[in-house]
Amino acid sequence: MATFLYKLGRLSFRRRHFVALIWVALLTLAGVGAASAPSAGSASFSIPGTEAQKAFDLLDERFPGMTADGGTARVVFKAPSGEKMTDADNKAIVEKTVRELKDGSEVAAVADPYTANAVNQDGTIAYASVSYKVSGFELEESTRDALKEAAQHARDAGLTVDVGGDALQAPAESAASEIIGIAIAAVVLVITLGSLLAAGLPLLTAIIGVGIGVSTITALASTLDLGDTTSTLALMLGLAVGIDYALFIVSRYRAELAEGREREEAVGRAVGTAGSAVVFAGLTVVIALAGLSVVNVPMLTKMGLAAAGTVAISVLIALTMVPALIGYVGRRLRPAGEKSKLLGGGRAARKAAEQPDRPNMGTRWASFVVRRPVAVLLTGVIGLGAAAIPAASLELGLPDDGSQPTSTTQRRAYDLLSEGFGPGFNGPLMVVVDAKGSDDAQAAFTDVGDKIKGLNNVVTVTPAVPNKAGDTATITVVPDAKPASTTTEDLVHTIRDTGAQITADTDAKVYVTGTTAMNIDVSQKMSDALVPYLILVVGLAFLLLILVFRSILVPLKAALGFLLSVMAALGAVVAVFQWGWLSGLLGVEETGPVMSMMPIFMVGIVFGLAMDYEVFLVTRMREAHVHGERPTQAVVTGFKHGARVVTAAAIIMMAVFGGFIGASESMVKMIGFGLAIAVFFDAFIVRMTIVPAVLALLGRRAWWLPKWLDRALPNVDVEGEGLRTEAESSGKDADPDGERELVRA
């Protein structure tokens, strides 16, 4: 591996015009494809195998034109103090608003509050239900504008009016967070590398890689039903890993220059050693992202595969485009330790460089850890264990309008409906009765309604509404608790258990669906998939790391450390978003269940990034050990060369993810906080603290591998021992014409 990548690096350096032309052509092709492709709407959302999805499919079949998964809006009206919604003037305002709401090609139906019994008992609050022919994300902007204008006209007439439902949930747009993340990354790179030019290379290559990846996704979005949100994860991860991978290679190149090697040879060795780590680190990220397909949620599968493809592009760019750009900048890219004149370099810096080397921060920290490994290990494990304690109380769910900031009209509409009709009114359950196989369909419909009325925590049960064929009916059930509560979840399970008894008695099948039931089913599906996903991802990566490190204990330690950091991060998320700790500081206005996709996202993304740090840091240690250093000294050497760069990479990741904490959406805020704190725990406590302590305690046993397994495994030579052997045997650094072999291959 190292020899092949060494030759690839030198070839890219020598043939830089050709390499640059290929990547610019790919970027142009992807950009043209994205610009000419039809605009993507929202990808079709389905959760195969869940009862709620089966019910939606049945409704589409038995109630044609009903658009069970279409967008909805509730325009909620409240009368001025001392007045009623039934007063003539207020009633006229509402009826005029209803007529306005009916205009528009995407509107399926609008229910008048006065004919649909949608006025509360004291007459102060009413609502008009609007249903659309397409999902909320697919609505045209003109339709949303018409909805807002109708509500504003009623406000101007003197009523309090707010709009809830999913019709106002516009597709996610790129915010300033990406720009903030890039700006912070640029500052960190300049500080780490001491050169504006060296800092610019990782940024440029990362932007090119993300541009190709995201443009390709956009070009294929309509054809593959990817939707406009699929590129979000690809953008976030592609930017972060693209900067990191290029950073590792540029940093290693400057270190090789500092050892006196010529530029072409330094490029080859940088790609052969750091590039090998990039390949295997990228593979772990790709495995983690592609593994999202085991959850069997099409949207997640597409997001994972799209992000995995962007990461793969980032790896290829780091191995080829970075060496090519290094060839362009020439001697202006200085060896490690030399700063540019703009940043304080020059004659004084060279004079200081001639002084005896002082141990850097990484060397001092590693020396401290290997002297006191037990104390450091216990401190790190106990600290992460304490942070993980809240994870035992983890409750999963999906956000609704009740989790929106109080400044939004969706949240105000939610609160008005709770005030006027009870908290459960915001999450009604739809019960679908399939009586096609029953002898008496009407009796089955009545039986289901009567049994649900007798259940606890039920406020209202509407009469059954059959389809034209009379073999299927819908019943609306209003719980007495808010949609995201455990009480409502228990009610859903109780209705389903009751439906099973009815099926046995009448042969009529009973399903519970609706947004609330779908959220519950999604949460359960995510919970059920978490363990298989962990086994698949961690298992495959464990085998990959055995191949990289030629050790059993080092990959095992890496996997266990990852579990510690993820559990601690989940504990922090629960403490903030479920318990409310530090909620004011982070702008969390409403606590509640943790988003059901959060654990899967954290496991997949954080595992890939954690293995990045593991590979980059520990391969340096193994390289030193293979070259003859004692185990504890190899740990110190690994930190001497790798700690600064890994620290910079982690800070860049935290900056990119942390930028999303300021978002108004609770879900985005939670993802940003969870990923940022997970990177902090894993990079600084697990990889920089627990890992060196464990390796110091294990000594030579850390690199133990059974002889039979050692013989069976191919030698991928991540540490570049083959380059050293070749140089020693030939009496020079390496074959200067080695790239010709690569061309012939």
Summarize the structure.
The protein contains 25 helices and 11 strands. The protein has helices spanning 2-14, 16-36, 51-62, 88-102, 141-156, 177-193, 196-224, 230-258, 263-290, 298-329, 347-353, 361-371, 373-388, 409-421, 441-453, 486-506, 515-549, 553-578, 583-586, 598-626, 631-658, 666-698, 707-712, 721-730, 738-744, and strands at 72-78, 107-111, 125-132, 160-164, 396-397, 429-434, 458-461, 465-466, 472-479, 509-513, 594-595.
What does this structure look like?
The strands form 3 sheets. Strands 6, 7, 8, 9 and 10 form a 5-stranded antiparallel beta sheet that branches. A 4-stranded antiparallel beta sheet has the order 2-3-1-4, sandwiched between helices. The radius of gyration is 30 Å and the shape is elongated. Helix 2 packs parallel to helix 7. It is built from 25 helices and 11 strands. With 745 residues, the protein is of the alpha+beta class.
Pick out its properties.
single chain; 745 residues; alpha+beta; 5-stranded antiparallel beta sheet; 4-stranded antiparallel beta sheet; 25 helices
Q: So how many helices?
A: 25
Query: How many DSSP E strands?
Result: 11
Given the helix and strand composition, which structural class is it?
Answer: alpha+beta
Largest sheet: 5 strands, antiparallel
User: Approximately how much helix is present in the residues?
Assistant: 55-70%
Low-confidence runs (pLDDT<50, min 5 residues)? 171-175, 346-356, 730-745
Shape: elongated
Assembly state: single chain
Q: What's the mean pLDDT score?
A: 81
Strand content: 5-15%
Q: How large, in whole angstroms, is the Cα Rg?
A: 30 Å
Distance between the termini: 14 Å
